[in-house]
Amino acid sequence: MKIAVDAMGGDYAPEEIVLGAIDAVKEYEFDVVLVGDTIQIEEVLNKYGWKGNARLTISQASEVIGMGEHPAQAIRKKKDASIVVATRLLKEGQCDAVVAAGSTGAAVTAALLGLGRIKGIERPCIATPLPSKKGITVLLDSGANANSKPKHLVEGAIMGYHYAKYILGIEKPSVGLLNIGEEASKGNELALATYPLLKKLKTISFYGNVEGRDIPKGTVDVVVCDGFVGNVILKFGEGMAMFIIRLVRERIRNGGFLAKLGALAVYPALKSLKKRLDFTEYGGAPLLGVNGSFIICHGSSKAKAIKNAIRVAAELAQQDVVGHIRKSIEEEEVEQYDSES
Question: What is the pTM of this model?
Answer without folding.
Answer: 0.86
